[in-house]
């Protein structure tokens, strides 16, 4: 019974939190989906967990949430571990785990800032797993446009004008200010000429 294994690991970890670091180094136990269902509030999963263990519903839910937060959603976890599976898992299982995590972490259901950060982590993991080719095209921080002309010359060996490296929004605002200045100057000349 794989669900019983995951539940036992979660309950043991909840009662002995000093083992979190060691558990992060181990592979995930089979049956993490049950823990995700419990964390997301699934009553059928809770009943199943109560039959598998002699614990109260509150203790089971707290253990499941603790396991998910400490093992799956730790900062250094890769995208597969964040979703509660390994890299051999099929896409439909990854999607099901992502949906359970988002159901539990959704900002509309929780006003907790820490949980909304975890929700963003889950979404990033899902995007990375779901479309890895899209991420290969995204520029890294070293590939981004430099902030000034001197950096451009150093990084690329070419000389760029200040205008070529300004963001489009800044150029647009500058153009609007110039147009407003010209319009104001024309109005003042027109008013002086008319009087």
TrEMBL record:
<dbReference type="InterPro" id="IPR036869">
    <property type="entry name" value="J_dom_sf"/>
</dbReference>
<protein>
    <submittedName>
        <fullName>Heat shock protein DnaJ domain-containing protein</fullName>
    </submittedName>
</protein>
<keyword id="KW-0346">Stress response</keyword>
């Amino acid at each position: 019974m794989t669900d019983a294994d995951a539940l036992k690991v979660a309950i043991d970890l909840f009662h002995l939190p000093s083992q979190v670091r060691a558990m992060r180094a181990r592979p995930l136990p089979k049956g993490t989906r049950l823990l995700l269902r419990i964390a997301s509030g699934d009553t059928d999963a809770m009943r199943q967990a109560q039959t598998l263990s002699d614990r109260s519903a509150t203790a089971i839910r707290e253990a499941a949430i603790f396991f998910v937060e400490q093992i799956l959603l730790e900062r250094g976890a890769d995208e597969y571990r964040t979703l509660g599976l390994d890299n051999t898992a099929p896409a439909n299982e990854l999607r099901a785990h992502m949906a359970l995590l988002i159901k539990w972490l959704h900002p509309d259901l929780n006003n907790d800032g820490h949980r909304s950060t975890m929700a963003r982590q889950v979404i990033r993991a899902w995007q990375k797993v779901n479309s890895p080719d899209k991420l290969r095209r995204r520029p890294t921080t070293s590939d981004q446009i430099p902030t000034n002309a001197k950096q451009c010359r150093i990084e690329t060996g070419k000389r760029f004008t200040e205008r070529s490296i300004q963001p489009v929004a800044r150029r647009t605002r500058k153009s609007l200010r110039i147009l407003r200045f010209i319009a104001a100057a024309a109005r003042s000349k027109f008013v002086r000429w008319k009087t």
